[in-house]
Specification:
The structure is a single chain. With 345 residues, this protein is of the alpha+beta class. Helix content is 32%, strand content 19%. It contains nine helices and twelve strands. Helix 3 crosses helix 6. The protein starts with 7 loop residues before the first strand and ends in a 6-residue tail after the last helix.
């Protein structure tokens, strides 16, 4: 890939290698994108076990930029530093301003999901949060080998939206197995982004409360404030182990949220802030319903007319409006900046 107004090259030269340490000289070429007055070169000493991701994260931190890939001069994706000979020249791409911002925001989202108990309860490396890269036909997806609490801006994988433009295993090209990519996540996100132009973020997570309520015969009920707010936004469906991407789009049916029996939640939003807020709201609505049912006591439910009127008010009324997360999202990102600043590496 040649440098354009949307990217610049970072050259990494392997100066020396041993069983204990790799020494890399890193040089940042023009045009500079982020932080144009920042450092242009640095020396990195890293352990071979840190791998490609470790080298990219350390180089990103030293040069104060966001690096998105590592390849040989011929364009072959580098997956291991261990077998490279001394004086090998590699190249990385500095992400565009839009991509760098998207990477940072998505990494913060993964950390927030972990903080708020929204990550999958049956293993935090499964499931996904995917986000479009603004101004491009591609999206970002998590590395399947990382826990959600470990995701950083540079660890996210950039995937072309069109399968024909994907190069090899690193980008999920059909027929190429990549242990860093969950194929079900890749297929679901691809289908939703291809068919829902209104969706900028799409996620799936197995939380205990959403998996429980999704499997109830009556599904989500308006027995909490969050449950009332979301009353008209939720689709319910059966889980099928062989469900493909187009079927996910069909079952979602234009809704923003889907609860799937024996499975969990899917959320499609116009922004990462909206996805986080809707995921938090549906999980809390399911938690409240589960807690209410566990009392074993009779309970009160609003009428259908009240649900319709109140759920509409939450969306339209200026006082209650904000289910899209716009109001709280900046403060959520600031929280991650304070508590887990390494997310931006």
């Amino acid at each position: 890939v040649e440098p354009t107004s949307h990217m610049s090259l970072i050259f990494l030269v392997l100066l020396a290698s041993s069983a204990e340490t790799l020494r890399l000289y890193v040089h940042r070429e023009e045009p500079k994108l982020d932080n144009p007055n920042g450092p242009c070169s640095t020396l990195l000493d890293i352990a071979p076990s840190a791998g490609v991701d470790g080298a990219l994260r350390l180089a990103s931190a030293r040069l104060q930029v966001s690096l998105s890939s590592l390849a040989t001069e011929s364009g072959t994706t580098v997956t291991s530093l261990a077998a490279l000979a001394n004086d090998t020249t590699l190249r990385a791409l500095e992400a565009s301003h839009a991509e760098a911002a998207a990477r940072r925001e998505l990494a913060a989202t993964y950390r927030l999901f972990h903080m708020y108990g929204l990550a999958p309860f049956d293993g935090e490396s499964i499931n996904f949060i995917a986000a479009r890269v603004p101004g491009s036909d591609s999206f970002l997806l998590n590395d399947y080998t990382l826990l959600w609490e470990e995701v950083t801006a540079s660890s996210l994988l950039r995937i072309p939206l069109l399968e024909g433009e994907r190069a090899g295993a690193a980008q999920g090209q059909p027929g190429h197995r990549n242990p860093r990519l969950n194929e079900a996540s890749l297929e679901g996100a691809t289908a939703v982004f291809q068919n829902r132009s209104d969706v900028a973020c799409f996620l799936h997570s197995h939380t205990l409360d959403t998996a429980t309520v999704a499997s109830l015969e009556e599904g989500l009920q308006p027995v909490s404030q969050a449950g009332i707010m979301l009353a008209n936004m939720v689709a319910h469906s059966h889980f099928d182990f062989y469900q493909d991407g187009p079927e996910t789009v069909r079952l979602l049916g234009g809704k923003k949220i889907m609860l799937q029996k024996w499975h969990g939640m899917f959320v499609a939003g116009e922004s990462l802030g909206e996805c986080f807020y809707l995921a938090l709201s549906i999980d809390r609505a399911c938690h409240a319903q589960r807690a209410l049912l566990q009392t074993g006591r009779p309970y009160h439910s609003p009428t259908a007319e009240e649900v319709a009127r109140w759920s509409r008010a939450y969306v339209d009324d200026p006082f209650y409006g904000g289910y899209d997360g716009e109001r709280i999202w900046p403060s959520m990102v600031r929280k991650v900046e304070r508590l887990q600043p390494d997310f931006a590496l």
